[in-house]
Amino acid sequence: MGLPRFGRPKNGDELSSNLFVANCGPAVGISDDEIASVFSKFGELNGVYAADDSGTRVIVSFSDVGSAQSAFMALHGKPCPELGGRSLFIRYSVLQPNPQELLQSVDSRPWNSLAKRRVQHYGYEFCYDIRNVNTKRCLGELPSFLSPILERISSCPTFKNADPDRIVLDQLTVNEYPPGVGLSPHIDTHSAFEDLIFSLSLAGPCIMEFRRYGDGDWRPRVASSIDTKVDCPEDGSNCIKRAIYLPPRSLLLLSGEARYAWHHYIPHHKIDKVDGKVIRRASRRVSFTLRKVRAGLCKCEFPQYCDSQR
Ligand SMILES: O=C(O)CCC(=O)C(=O)O
Ligand SMILES: [Fe+2]
């Protein structure tokens, strides 16, 4: 799988547990161990890695953001006596998720076949018959191949002032859709998952459509399972529709009204039209849906769609 790939954050606001450190390294006679001994004073280190081929730029990876922040504030722009008096230039750096590696990771694990698509569950199993998770049976921690994604999510400026507990995600469903296969309209069961639902699209693209029904009903719009072939009927005036194009490597976040009150689905099409352009769903789409399993009852502001409040 190679070394972790780090990049500089595009947005200066984005904190991270990894620091890009310039002006030290083997090309100027400073070993990774010497660098580690300076930075480890601020917290537990995952490691020191070459940032590129220059030999003068490294990535110092901490196990938490707070330690990286303390090191940044103490060492950036100042001469460091333990490193030959060199002035360190430091920036936050985020792990770059590698789509190919993510796909290889799931393809090397067993898939469960549903009627039209394949799935994998991590953290907790999602049971399609009850549209809920079995909280009594924990499947273990989320796999380590997800770390770059979880880190990107937690370092996103949107969550800068958020309660950190809100973004501790513990359930992953991987869906593999063959070309043309969609997903029937549903609202993820309120009592099963907390507010934030993330979905990362890999391999092929798709269009995800959304419907808000006036009558409010938390049950799926098709009677049997999420995999039923029948498309949801158009019930015209009683629903508002929206569509979002999800290109590969995009991350969709459903929260608030979008998560609690809108049905989402993927039409069963091989061809989608986006801004007048034809997009062919030539390859499979693999999505990583990340959620946090709900501990108590849902108290959302959309009781008409809420199984906890009905
Ligand atoms: O494939 C996706 O992006 C969404 C999957 C989904 O909605 C679900 O598993 O509940
Ligand atoms: Fe969903």
Automatic annotation (TrEMBL):
Gene3D superfamilies: 3.30.70.330, Alpha-ketoglutarate-dependent dioxygenase AlkB-like (2.60.120.590). Residues 17-95 form the RRM domain. Keywords: RNA-binding. Transmembrane segments: none annotated. One of its GO terms (molecular function) is RNA binding. PROSITE patterns: FE2OG_OXY, RRM. This is RNA-binding (RRM/RBD/RNP motif) family protein.
